[in-house]
Specification:
Layout lengths: L1 E4 L6 E4 L9 H14 L1 E4 L6 H9 L13 E2 L2 E8 L2 E2 L2 E2 L20 E10 L2 E2 L2 E2 L3 E5 H6 L3 H7 L3 E4 L1 H9 L11 H6 L3 E4 L1 E3 L6 E3 L6 E4 L4 H15 L5 E4 L6 E5 L3 E5 L10 E8 L4 H5 L1
Parallel strand pairs: 2-3
Antiparallel strand pairs: 1-2, 3-18, 4-5, 5-20, 6-7, 8-18, 8-20, 9-10, 11-17, 11-19, 12-13, 12-16, 14-15
Length: 292
């Protein structure tokens, strides 16, 4: 196995491993450490069945089963189907493009360690792949904060609310989404998250505050909270923190859901098919011990 760092704000390519095969213990630990160090790992030229993608992802923690989403691989509710393809007039998967910058599961008390996506079909135009997935480095974003901001926010928490994200998605042209019901809001209540979180693999602090879900900083006046969140969101959007992954069919892309934020670019149409399988790994293991 060979790991080559990208020349951008984060990320690396991992060659010389077949993820369809059972993952040896030393390979597992190497990948886990690389995930903490690089944030995003691309394993090119893979060919995985849903059960193989599930087996790989589950080595790193329990897999989420999204009970609200009907689009999953047959027999594998933990393997979500992301797609813009329609068959017999009906979608075969969830179209995840255009969601804006966010961190999956930050609206939940139980946070996610990683996402693992496997590209089956990639939309193309004039020989160029579309639908990049973009990432920002929250290890570096924390490191570069001014000392006075770190001191001001140390120990503080922010409220993350699923409804903020939902309303952004509802506002998309042609969305068709309805407002969350009272029952849905009860199932996804706002949660409090530390603004600075200790990363479970690296042991370093990260900026865990994303524009998709964070709505206010607890203990601050509304105007002060709004100004600070605006500052944090602008700070993390600087180009030196950015990596944009250009997909190739066969790519398996694994990213750190605690040390990055991400965004799916919506630059393709329904006539440019996209099909991706996805598992989400919850943070359920002692990663510091495993990475030691």
């Amino acid at each position: 196995m060979r790991i080559t760092r990208n020349n951008e704000g984060l990320g690396a390519r991992v060659l010389g491993i077949d993820l369809a095969q059972p993952l040896a213990e030393d390979s597992f630990r190497t990948i886990l450490r690389a995930l903490g160090e690089h944030g995003v790992l691309c394993f090119p030229d893979q060919s995985l069945e849903p059960f193989e993608l599930s087996a790989f992802g589950s080595r790193f923690g329990e897999l989420e089963i999204n009970v609200a989403n009907a689009f999953h691989a047959e027999g594998h509710p933990e393997v979500m189907v992301l797609s813009n393809i329609r068959r017999d007039g009906k979608p075969i998967g969830l179209n995840d493009a255009g969601q804006g910058w966010h961190t999956d599961m930050s609206y939940s008390h139980d946070v996610a360690l990683a996402n693992v996506l496997h590209a089956k079909q990639v939309p193309m135009r004039d020989g160029r792949p579309l639908g990049d997935t973009q990432f920002r480095n929250m290890h570096a974003a924390y490191d570069d904060l001014p000392r006075e901001v770190k001191e001001r926010l140390e120990g503080r928490t922010a409220i993350h609310d699923f409804e903020k994200f939902w309303e952004v998605m509802r506002a998309r042209p042609g969305s068709g989404r309805k407002p969350l019901t009272e029952e849905q809001r009860r199932k996804k209540p706002p949660v409090s998250q530390p603004i600075f979180r200790v990363h479970p693999i690296t042991g370093r602090r990260v900026l865990y505050c994303n524009p998709g879900y964070a709505v206010r900083i607890e203990g601050m006046a509304p105007e002060e909270s709004d100004a600070m969140l605006d500052y944090l969101f602008k700070h993390q959007s600087q180009p030196q923190y950015l990596y944009s992954h250009r997909w190739t069919p066969g790519d398996v892309l694994m990213w750190d859901n605690i040390g990055t934020t991400h965004n799916a670019v919506s630059d393709y149409t329904t006539d440019e098919p996209r099909l991706i399988h996805r598992v989400q790994v919850m943070a359920t293991l002692d990663y510091a011990r495993l990475a030691a």
